[in-house]
Amino acid sequence: MQADPDNQSLSNGTSRASDVLDRISDLAGRATAWLTLLMVLVTFVIVVFRYAFDASFIWLQESLTWMHAFVFMMGASYTLQQEEHVRVDIFYRDMPVRRRALVNLFGVTVFLFPLCGFFIYQSYDYVAASWNLREISRDSGGLPYPAIPLLKSLLLLMPVTVVLQGLSLMLRSWRDLRSR
Asked: pLDDT by residue (tens digit) across 3-25?
């Protein structure tokens, strides 16, 4: 049986595009992993300053909270890429590849994309207001401008990275459907 050259080139293009999108999620995952190490070190520094020197820095404590948020927000696309997100896996794990591809296509188009669109729609004004106000920490000695608007921009960046990973999942699922 001879391979269809048009189908093969489409499959290669789909695979390359999916690989590029996967690299974005992989970068986010690696950054998140390093950030968790930094969080441990910052926590250690906070504890040492508090108990050894009876000193504390509001900005350092706030940075820990924001790093925690960053880990969850930017780790979402990597988690989706690694298929470690929460799902009811009773039936999915035993499905043939073709059926899993159909489930993934359905889930991405019906649930993931609309939810990410909703997140972007709801967050945009909130993030824009933070930038327009040149928002700073409410606490004296807290994080300066532009830290807060940059961090609130994660509310827009997270769904964008998840959509990109969703596109990768769609492309891989489409490839699986066409190759079988």
From this structure: 454 455 555 667 788 888 888 88
- For residue 96, what are the CA distances in angstroms to 82, 106, 179? 19, 16, 13
Within 8 A by CB and 6+ apart from 109, the residues are: 170
The residue ranges of DSSP E strands in the chain, in sequence order, are none
Write the pLDDT tens digit of every residue in 108-165.
999 999 999 999 999 999 999 999 999 998 888 888 899 899 999 999 999 999 999 9
The burial class, CB within 10 Å (0-12 / 13-18 / 19+), for 30 is exposed
* pTM across the whole model: 0.81
Where do the structural domains in the chain lie, given as residue ranges? 5-179
Query: Are the beta carbons of 49 and 57 closer than 8 angstroms?
Result: yes
Report how far residue 37's alpha carbon sits from residue 105's, in angstroms, rounded to the nearest whole number.
Answer: 35
CA gap 36, 161 in Å, rounded: 19
Distance, in Å, from the CA atom of 34 to the CA atom of 36, rounded to the nearest integer, reads 5
